[in-house]
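Quick one: structure tokens for this chain, please?
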Amino acid sequence: MWTVNFVRVAAYQTPLLAAGSMDALDLNEQLHLFHSTSPLGPWTPHRRNPVKWDARGSRPAGRFFQVDGELYRPAQDCTERYGGSIRILRVVRLDLDEYVETEVATIEPEWRPDLIGTHTINVVPGLAVIDGRLSYAAARCASVG
């Protein structure tokens, strides 16, 4: 199963697709990129796929977004559990030959006391939406009463 996010790279006017691995064992550990001149394809794999192999930040956690002209990619940190926290990665280089990113922030599930994970963030100008994963006891209590 692929997690899909599109981003247009201004230098190439080429949409790129960010995806996790189709191999269920590596779903949280690999980031693959593909490029095409059309969102309908055909899609060509990035020459360095997988461009990242690390459970701390390969799995997408939302759409790419821009702030002050800089491109960012949210990623799930799955070292503790699926969707344990979110890492915000600034994209330093994204083209047909390379992909380089650097971590600039981490969102831990500390913004509510009964959270055990935070999974997705999406950002548009003036608005950010984030979700969290409740502990089993908190989720059960919320569904009962």
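The chain has a mean pLDDT of 81.
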